[in-house]
Amino acid sequence: MNKPDFIKSKFTVFMGDMFGGVNAAVIALPQALAFGVATGLGAGAGIWGAIILCFVSGLIGSKVPMIAGITGPVAIVIASVMHSLNNDISSVIFIIAAAGVIQFLIAFTKIPDIVKYIPYPVISGFMNGVGAIIIIMQLNPLFGLKPFSNTIESLKNLFMTLHFANTDALILGFLTLLIVFFTPKFINKIVPAQIIALVICTIISVKLGFNVDKIAEISASFPGVVLPKTALHNFIAYFHYSIMLAIVLSSETLLTGLVANSITKQATPPKRLLIPQGIGNILCSFTGSLPGAAATMRTVAALKTGASTKGAALISAVVLLLCLSVFSGFVAEIPLPVLAGILIKIGYDIIDFKLLKVIKHAPKDDLYVLAVVFLLTVFYNLIVAVGAGIVLAAILYAKRLADRTTIVQKEISDADIQNMEKNIETSFKHKIRVVHISGQFFFGSATQLVSHFDEMLGTKFLILVYDSEAALDISAIFAFEDIVVRLNAQHIKLLLVIRNEEIRSQLAKHDIISMVGDNHIFYNEMDAIDYAKVRLQRRLNRSKDVLN
Predict the structure, then answer these.
(1) 76 CB-near residues (< 8 Å, 6+ apart)
(2) What are the pLDDT digits (tens) for 255-266?
(3) Which of 13, 215, 419, 539 is most buried, taking the most CB atoms under 10 A from its CB?
(4) Which structural domains are found in the chain, ordered by start?
């Protein structure tokens, strides 16, 4: 590459990171303020936590930009800890510091690899629960009242909340909801609706002199150093809180990493994700700021806007710092009902509507797991919910296998068929490939199997033979969808060989058959091979005709 092209390439990367970092910061600002207030540590703790975490990610993080900060699940954990400890901030700071250390240590173990094996209904139930908690807990602030400490109290006192509602708060809150829910998409792509609501509603509140609670005070100066108490008693008494927070912080970061990897087609080792987040959260505790994780929404926004390196995280931190310095006076005037409206929209966005749309077709076992995780998350404890969901999913899966052991007979391909497949791949120079999925295709194997379809250079037709008679769970169905999308992106024609009518029916209900094409579904492997050979020969003949 000559010098002008090199400079042009570097400039393109820089501009992509610039736009991506700014876009992520604009999304992060209202969320950091809102979550900071919701946890009880204050708006300043939320925005300084985002600044510190983005700065650390930009300095020592992975190459792929990870835009970090306080997120919904983390905010719920911090808020519940604050309530349990009667707003003892010094103890909460110790818990945050210990969680950062645990997160750092987890990076050097095999624990992060477990995340990919968490069943989809568990993740969905957890995220739906977190979304519901955020919405329920913000009902009182939306009506201009003090929030209750838990979801049960909030629901029990809902009628009292309606009776004592502040009219000014109601006006601002519902105006915020109208803006964040109904701003046209083309405007939202330019300026996030949350920022529009923040600015418009704050100006209305100030100009009309509305009688509502506000952020009131936020410091633009760097927060002072706060050293957590390190007594052995604190470590023993609060260790379970630290573990719970570290698990949530790490899980969110790893899941965001998986999403970023699927967009960038780059594999980032879990260690490169968790180490900077652990260090960043330790620094957050030293400044009394809120901890956080790599946030999926902000990271995706940065990537979609053109960000390609960790420089975007640095730029995001700088933009947040400039906003805090220049607009601290305006930020102090932001009404709390406006932040409540923004949080309700965030809670709504967290809810997994992808699964809810197909829930009527989901196996009953998946629905049991989702329901248990959701209810435990909303009304009891986040970590207990996830643990219970994983255990229940494993038990139900073991039961399904045990029930089928005596009646399922698995067909075994003979040597002639294996040799025939090898000959086809060799003679057609791997333009036609045959892949068998043998055994149970379920949540544990789905993620690993999908990764095998990332790169199949030179292949024109992939014949995927599903040998198992076992029905698919939701994770496997979504994995099938992912396989189709990946192969289409590589211009590879997928031919499915499925003998089981129940599995065909499942794929049809979830529109996988229509994505692949009815004429690309076969009962017999030889029919699929003959079809691929004929179609490939036609392509070769057309190419020869063009050359002649």
Answers:
(1) 130, 133, 134, 382
(2) 888 778 877 778
(3) 215
(4) 11-393 (no CATH), 415-547 (3.30.750.24)
